[in-house]
């Protein structure tokens, strides 16, 4: 069969795929499809296109002839029978159900992720709290006052177990571009970074525990500055407080 002999059948395939052909045209195309693999492929593609609308394929324009035919059929269908309506309604219902399912799975995944993050945050809070309690009850722990213009609190220093803990009240929340950074200060007045932290949104006090790589006895003080998010190699920003051991 030549290309030209195919043409009228090919043009009818989109309409056939959605049941919009006349009975005569349907019968003619159906018998042509039995013997023509390339038209069957075309039909399969159109059906797949319908199913894949949910997965966002780039839109394809229907042929102008099909559009006209559909428009006139839709107008006609309002006055006559509801056959087409029933068929489209089940398709529509399936489509809506799929969209709802997709939205629900997306929502569940998002929910699960945020629950995991929340759980990790609470675990951190509990561990920090337990460390602070153990330090407070440990006889050798020194408690030093943090008392600057902007914040108050305590610095717990455990030279034997090599732990430093900060408990600071009313530490202002920072915007996303900034972080607090803690520095250990040595006798030569040099600063060694001991980590970055942000205040918890739901608490009026901020706790931060440092387990220094070097012995804390090598240092003579602790300072906290405001640095760009991610922290700096050396202090560059405003000092929040400084405590001498
Ligand atoms: Zn064909």
Report what the structure shows.
- It is a single chain.
- The N and C termini lie far apart (95 Å).
- The mean pLDDT is 85.
- It contains five helices and eight strands; from the N terminus they run H-H-H-H-H-E-E-E-E-E-E-E-E.
- With 245 residues, it is an alpha+beta fold.
- It has three domains: 78 residues, Arc Repressor Mutant, subunit A, CATH 1.10.10; 57 residues; 103 residues, Immunoglobulin-like.
- The longest helix has 55 residues.
- A hairpin with a 4-residue loop joins strand 1 and strand 2.
- The site of zinc ion has 6 residues, from helix 1 and helix 3.
Briefly say what this structure is.
By secondary structure, the protein is an alpha+beta fold.
How is the topology of this model organized?
Elements: H1 3-17, H2 23-35, H3 37-51, H4 64-79, H5 83-137, E1 142-147, E2 152-158, E3 163-169, E4 178-185, E5 191-197, E6 205-210, E7 221-228, E8 239-244
Antiparallel strand pairs: 1-2, 2-3, 3-6, 4-5, 4-7, 7-8
Bound molecules: zinc ion (ZN).
The site of zinc ion (ZN) has 6 residues, from α1 and α3.
Structural shape:
rod-shaped
Number of extended strands = 8
Oligomer: single chain
What compounds are bound to the protein? zinc ion
Share of helix among residues?
40-55%
């Amino acid at each position: 069969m030549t290309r030209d002999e195919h043409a009228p059948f090919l043009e009818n395939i989109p309409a056939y795929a959605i049941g919009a052909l006349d009975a005569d045209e349907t019968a003619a195309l159906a018998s042509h499809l039995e013997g023509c693999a390339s038209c069957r492929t075309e039909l399969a593609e159109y059906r797949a296109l319908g199913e894949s609308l949910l997965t966002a394929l780039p839109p394809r324009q229907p042929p102008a002839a099909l559009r006209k035919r559909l428009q006139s059929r839709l107008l006609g269908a309002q006055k006559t029978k509801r056959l087409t309506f029933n068929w489209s309604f089940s398709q529509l219902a399936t489509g809506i159900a799929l969209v709802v399912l997709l939205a629900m799975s997306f929502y569940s995944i998002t929910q699960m992720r945020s629950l995991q993050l929340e759980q990790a945050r609470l675990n951190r809070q509990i561990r920090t709290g337990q460390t602070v309690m153990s330090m407070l009850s440990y006889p050798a722990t020194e408690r030093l006052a943090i008392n600057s213009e902007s914040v108050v609190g305590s610095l717990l220093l455990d030279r034997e177990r090599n732990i430093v803990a900060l408990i600071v009240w009313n530490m202002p929340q920072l915007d996303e571009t900034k972080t607090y950074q803690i520095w250990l200060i040595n006798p030569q007045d040099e600063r060694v970074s001991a980590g970055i932290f942000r205040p918890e949104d739901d608490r009026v006090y901020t706790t931060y525990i440092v387990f220094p790589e070097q012995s804390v006895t090598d240092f003579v003080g602790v300072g906290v500055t405001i640095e760009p998010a991610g922290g700096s190699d050396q202090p560059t920003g405003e000092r929040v407080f400084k405590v001498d051991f």
